[in-house]
Amino acid sequence: MSRGSGAGYDRHITIFSPEGRLYQVEYAFKAVKAAGITSIGVRGKDSVCFVTQKKVPDKLLDQTSVTHLFAVTKFIGLLATGMTADAKSLIAHARNEAANFKFDLGYEIPVDYLAKRIADKSQVYTQHAYMRPLGVSAMLIGIDDEQGPQLYKCDPAGHYFGYKATSSGSKEQEAVNFLEKKIKNNPQLSYDETVQTAISALQSILLEDFKPTEIEVGVVRAGKPEFRVLSTEEIDEHLTAISERD
Amino acid sequence: MGDSQYSFSLTTFSPSGKLVQIEYALMAVGAGQTSLGIKASNGVVIATEKKLPSILVDEASINKIQSLTPNIGVVYSGMGPDSRVLVRKSRKQAQTYQRLYQEPIPLSQLVRETAAVMQEFTQSGGVRPFGVSLLMAGFDDNGPQLYQVDPSGSYFSWKASAIGKNVSNAKTFLEKRYSDDMELEDAIHTAILTLKEGFEGQISGKNIEIGIIDEKRVFKVLTPAEVEDYLAEVE
């Protein structure tokens, strides 16, 4: 049986290293980056959207079955960046939480509370040796009754924050730099501006122009609060608008 | 707690008799943002830095200072996710006491129970210690009190204390400024000045949080606007 604490196992399970770090958690973050895709979320005045790359590694794969966007409830969307199987586990848990909440309390789970529950579960994995942290970063979008459009992100360490805009994945830092410049003056983005900011951010940091089939976009809007994945036609309209603008 | 495969403690004694996992946990606390608390004659104030990793983060979504009961508040330094576990457990313990005795839990008892949880995680199988220190502030029949709880589960009552980065400077500052007959308003100003000492960048109502409790025995977190008012008074 393996004994931890100082015997060099601080890299194998989530116990503290001599500097007070949790290596397993840090490695989980690296696993999110290693997935090879970048995701971006942007919150506007009355809508929120997130965008991710759709990389289909094999031509024989059924493209429609490759997705990182999931509806947790009719009103909350989740974008999982990182290890696919871990993402499925996280989503199953999120859906379970949301359904139990609705059953017990009689109203739809708020986005920030769902983010908290997801993050709390992730925290358990950072403290108990028997389960490793999940290699997934989850972005949640929804329209809250009181707070309006919400964008939350939960990471493998168990942190969760509300964001005006954020990103995850391989080019996370570049995307954040780009978004900080855009959001600096607190612009009140309309629905179209929100979606186009997210898509053009992705195009700019990856230095490529997308075809509508190469990205996935999910949105929620104040008037129509159901979570929706945009169709290829709608994505095409936004891509055209972006290229005409530039 | 933990799976049977990990039914042995991960926190074990080193040959010199130290529990190194706890020491490492304290390092994690020491890397966290500074928090402090001051007990005044008629209340308690706790405060913390709220430095966000990016301007993209919506600072209104983050509440580092939380209330555990209507008359007890808590702030942490160290690993945020770990603090949430303790907040949740403490709230449940407070509620259990309330149900049983039909009375709000005295702060010293809540501190004792929270500390016991933290100690469990230094001894139970398959878990690591919490990477947070807590400052718990409250006003009950024993007057205003401030307690600090560490990852080991040990706790003390303090007149004024600081945790996280920069503690030695903060504590020296507090030692100079503290007086037993200090009133809450003075304490709030002193808390702000202490935070300012080690603060990198421009301090404002958006990058610090302050929680207070006075003789009315209701813990409240100040709004950013209220914090700005106090900051202006300190200038």
TrEMBL record, chain A:
PANTHER family: PROTEASOME SUBUNIT ALPHA/BETA. Residues 9-31 form the Proteasome alpha-type subunits domain. It comes from the Eukaryota. The 20S proteasome core is composed of 28 subunits that are arranged in four stacked rings, resulting in a barrel-shaped structure. The two end rings are each formed by seven alpha subunits, and the two central rings are each formed by seven beta subunits. The keyword DNA-binding does not apply. Gene3D superfamilies: Glutamine Phosphoribosylpyrophosphate, subunit 1, domain 1. SUPFAM superfamilies: N-terminal nucleophile aminohydrolases (Ntn hydrolases) (SSF56235). This is Proteasome subunit alpha type. The proteasome is a multicatalytic proteinase complex which is characterized by its ability to cleave peptides with Arg, Phe, Tyr, Leu, and Glu adjacent to the leaving group at neutral or slightly basic pH. The proteasome has an ATP-dependent proteolytic activity. It holds the Pfam family Proteasome_A_N.
Automatic annotation (TrEMBL), chain B:
The keyword Nucleus applies. Pfam families: Proteasome, Proteasome_A_N. Keywords: Cytoplasm, Nucleus, Proteasome. SUPFAM superfamilies: N-terminal nucleophile aminohydrolases (Ntn hydrolases). InterPro entries: Ntn_hydrolases_N, Proteasome_alpha, Proteasome_alpha-type, Proteasome_asu_N, Proteasome_sua/b. The keyword Cytoplasm applies. It is found in: Cytoplasm; Nucleus. One of its GO terms (biological process) is proteasome-mediated ubiquitin-dependent protein catabolic process. The 20S proteasome core is composed of 28 subunits that are arranged in four stacked rings, resulting in a barrel-shaped structure. The two end rings are each formed by seven alpha subunits, and the two central rings are each formed by seven beta subunits. This is Proteasome subunit alpha type. It comes from Physcomitrium patens.
